[in-house]
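Practice problem 4.
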């Protein structure tokens, strides 16, 4: 079929083309089918959407993901990628071979799978899991799909938390501690997708986080460390595409977690990695047994990849810091680096840094590096190298001007501070899009409280979002207050 192509200004994650419904019927194409497009001796493949309004009959609208295709074209039906058959096999609980997984990863990387097929892949992994062999093959394929950074130093340290805990902002504290000891630690971090802040969002309060690979290398050569946004350096880019399919389903399969984390570490050139696995009722991993199983799976796959790895299992039933949201978490980071700050955040940062020192066979003490001011000095060096103000102080970082204080409705004991609800309140307030939005906690589990004591403060940059956050909080119980006797029974 001969059509006339034109570009359409619609951002799509896949190479989408839009056909008039009548032309699609004549061609035998349905939504999410694929068509081949030939123009000037080149062939393109697009994923079909149909319409009766956006495109006239005889026309073809092409989104930017496909490339610049305009003018007369010839179109025909295209077959499904072979990887779709592998996904179907995994849905039927068959174990996939190395080549099968490589084809799936290649097609995800090249945007050859539509959203339904990508969702089916994620569902198959969630339902049937991945064997150790499959996880290893997946990690290797995801690593090969992006850039790979090589370093001249023998020891390259790294750290990752599997997430799910609010205010767990230890990375901007650990990186300068480790770098101050002379250990190279090039940290790539994510922005928030479903949380009130990712590490990159918090670091962006201080400085730039989007850099090319060469710029990242220059920063690390100058300071021993960095905290940059992983999306800007093309390390294991397939991971970001898979995450896009996981989020609507609210799934995060263990095998995919391992492949995601280790592929990014391998791509970044890291060879000594500490993995933080928080567990708790409201965390991503809900039980100690599951945390131990995940840690063992990490170890087995890392061994095949020649990665030195240490997994720490930490309590994640409640937020770690006091601040939740980019600016509020940044204030906690500076406070800890300056010798104070939330005790749980300080202690966890010290513990993880010391374990990483042991893994790297480095004679250093994290608490001494914090208390001496060496870590703070190194943090300011990194901020300056990433284009920020090295002299920034905690009081310079101001949360949103609209606020609401949530108080206890009765005397009692704080039974739970629920990560999920606290995080959602912060998101409704505007975090992370509005950096000053979020929550500051005034209590922790097991605290005794009296009626009208402050439990937490909600901050927002816009009054309408503050109202939305307060309305949501009124529907849930983010901080649960119980009787002292009830608390005593639970502790037992």
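Answer key:
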């Amino acid at each position: 079929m001969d059509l006339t192509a034109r570009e359409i200004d619609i951002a799509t994650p896949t190479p989408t083309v839009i056909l008039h419904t009548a032309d699609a019927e004549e061609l035998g194409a349905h939504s999410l089918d694929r068509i081949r497009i030939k123009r000037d001796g080149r062939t393109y493949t697009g994923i079909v959407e149909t319409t009766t309004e956006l495109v006239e009959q005889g026309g073809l609208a092409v989104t930017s993901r496909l490339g610049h295709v305009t003018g007369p074209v010839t179109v025909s039906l295209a077959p499904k990628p072979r990887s779709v058959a592998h996904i179907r096999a995994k849905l039927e609980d068959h174990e996939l071979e190395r080549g099968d997984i490589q084809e799936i990863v290649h097609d995800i990387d090249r945007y050859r799978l539509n959203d339904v097929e990508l969702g089916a892949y994620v569902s198959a992994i969630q339902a049937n899991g991945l064997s150790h062999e499959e996880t290893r093959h997946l990690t290797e394929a995801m690593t090969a799909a992006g850039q790979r950074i090589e370093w001249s130093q023998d020891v390259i340290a790294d750290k990752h938390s599997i997430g799910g805990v609010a205010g767990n902002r230890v990375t901007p504290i650990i990186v300068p501690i480790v770098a101050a000891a002379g250990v190279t630690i090039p940290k790539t971090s994510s922005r928030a997708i479903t949380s009130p802040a990712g590490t990159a969002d918090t670091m962006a309060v201080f400085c730039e986080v989007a850099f090319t690979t060469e710029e990242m290398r220059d920063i690390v050569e100058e300071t021993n460390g960095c905290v940059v946004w992983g999306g800007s350096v093309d390390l294991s880019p397939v991971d970001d595409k898979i995450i896009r399919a996981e989020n609507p389903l609210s799934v995060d399969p263990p095998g995919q977690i391992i492949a995601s984390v280790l592929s990014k570490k391998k791509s970044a050139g890291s060879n000594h990695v500490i993995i933080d696995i928080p567990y708790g009722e409201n965390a991503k991993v809900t039980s100690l047994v599951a945390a131990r199983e995940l840690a063992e799976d990490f170890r087995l796959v890392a061994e095949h990849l020649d990665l030195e790895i240490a997994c720490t299992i930490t309590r994640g039933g409640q937020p770690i810091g006091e601040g939740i949201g980019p600016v509020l978490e940044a204030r906690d980071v500076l406070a800890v680096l300056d010798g104070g700050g939330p005790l749980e955040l300080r202690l966890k940062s010290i513990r993880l840094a010391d374990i990483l020192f042991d893994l790297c066979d480095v004679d250093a003490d994290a608490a001494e590096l914090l208390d001496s001011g060496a870590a703070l000095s190194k943090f300011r060096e990194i901020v300056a190298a990433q284009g920020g103000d090295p002299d920034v102080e905690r009081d310079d970082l101001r949360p949103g001007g609209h606020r609401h204080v949530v108080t206890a409705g009765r005397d009692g004991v704080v039974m739970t501070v629920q990560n999920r609800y606290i995080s959602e309140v912060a998101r409704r307030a505007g975090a992370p899009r509005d950096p000053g939005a979020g929550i500051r906690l005034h209590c922790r589990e097991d605290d005794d409280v009296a009626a009208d004591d402050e439990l937490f403060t909600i901050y927002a940059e816009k009054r309408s979002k503050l109202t939305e956050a307060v309305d949501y909080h009124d529907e849930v119980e983010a901080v649960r207050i119980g009787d002292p006797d009830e608390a005593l029974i639970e502790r037992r």
